[in-house]
Automatic annotation (TrEMBL):
Pfam families in alphabetical order: ATG9
Gene symbol of the encoding locus: Atg9a_1
Membrane topology, record value: Multi-pass membrane protein
UniProt family annotation: Belongs to the ATG9 family.
Biased composition annotated in UniProt, kind: Basic and acidic residues: 1-18
GO CC terms in record: autophagosome; phagophore assembly site membrane
Reported function: Phospholipid scramblase involved in autophagy. Cycles between the preautophagosomal structure/phagophore assembly site (PAS) and the cytoplasmic vesicle pool and supplies membrane for the growing autophagosome. Lipid scramblase activity plays a key role in preautophagosomal structure/phagophore assembly by distributing the phospholipids that arrive through ATG2 from the cytoplasmic to the luminal leaflet of the bilayer, thereby driving autophagosomal membrane expansion.
Acidic residues bias spans: 19-31
Disordered: annotated segments: 1-31
InterPro entries tied to this protein: Autophagy-rel_prot_9
Descriptive protein name: Autophagy-related protein 9
Transmembrane segments: 139-159
The species this protein was found in: Hippolais icterina
Keywords annotated in UniProt: Autophagy, Lipid transport, Membrane, Transmembrane, Transmembrane helix, Transport
Length: 294
């Protein structure tokens, strides 16, 4: 069993890793700068990384996806999928004559027998009529404009994310010594071992110390660990007692998204960025007022 003094020293060392951002230069609190570049050499290009949470998360996503090309293809297919869903839904709403499709109104074709089978081209409206129905629906035009704005936001987000992943690709090649074509041959454990060895050669975080696998996983799973802890402490309303059924757990994806938005990512969240709590949250005297506001 470890001595109390040794446990306290290990705890202090871990807390110093958590407080890396305190050594950042003033005026950089609100910047979303992932990497700080210098030009001393290939292995010295990433020093004192400010946002270790995002950095380790991007590294963990880059490895199982087998590199930048797979991440790029995934983002492109997601954008194409969104466009397809919106376009096909608009086509079904405006360009299909459902009376003809479901045979509630006979076809007005003199050369077709009365009991002829209805085909899909018979139910599709001509392009001018389809465009006319689209222009005559104000709510549908509003939804299309809204969908276009959402798609543009997703495009900008994907471009920003790809810039970060391109830097992670350079980090894999230059700092970790893993070429892009060999990434599929390296497991996540191998990537972690190279990260730990790199920290011993140069300070990825401030102050310089040895990283452990637990440090990396705590950074990657920070918000998820908070959520699990709050569920275990019965702080989140996910357990209910129903008549005859007894206690049940109810946590849908929508409810989980709203809880994360409220606690971690929203404008009034407890975190001021991805790794640091707001200063007022750390003050014990302000907890009741913050709880009432929350």
């Amino acid at each position: 069993m470890a001595e109390p003094g040794e446990e306290h020293r290990q705890y202090q060392e871990y807390r110093r890793l958590e407080d890396c951002e305190e050594d950042s230069p003033p005026g950089e609190e609100e910047e979303e700068q992932l990497l700080l570049h210098v030009t001393e050499g290939p292995t010295d290009s990433w020093h004192h990384i400010k946002d270790l949470d995002s950095f380790f998360t991007k590294i963990s996503w880059h490895s199982p996806w087998n590199g930048f090309a797979c991440v790029l293809l995934s983002d492109i297919l997601e954008l194409v999928q969104f466009l397809f869903v919106v376009t096909f839904s608009t086509f079904l709403l405006c360009c299909v004559d459902y009376d003809v499709l479901f045979a509630t109104r006979p076809l007005n074709h003199s050369h077709v027998p009365e009991r002829a089978k209805v085909t899909l081209p018979d139910a599709v409206l001509p392009a001018p009529q389809c465009a006319s129905r689209l222009r005559g629906s104000g709510w549908l035009l509003f939804l299309l404009v809204l969908a276009g704005a959402v798609w543009l936001c997703r495009l900008v987000t994907a471009l920003r994310r790809l810039v970060g992943y391109w830097e992670i690709r350079s980090f894999y090649i230059r700092a970790l010594g893993i070429p892009a074509e060999e990434l599929c041959n390296h497991s996540w454990q191998s990537v972690q071992a190279r990260l730990l060895a790199l920290q011993r050669r140069q300070p990825l975080c401030v102050p310089r110390r040895e990283l452990t696998e637990l440090d990396i996983h705590h950074r990657i799973l920070r918000f998820r660990n908070y959520t699990v802890a709050m569920v275990n402490k019965s702080l989140l309303p996910v357990r209910f007692r129903l008549p005859l059924l007894g206690p049940v757990v109810f946590l849908t994806r929508g409810l989980q998204f709203n809880l994360e938005l409220l606690l971690f990512r929203g404008p009034a969240a407890l975190f001021q960025n991805t790794w640091s709590l707001r200063p007022q949250v750390k003050r014990a005297g302000a907890r009741r007022a913050l709880a009432r506001g929350l």
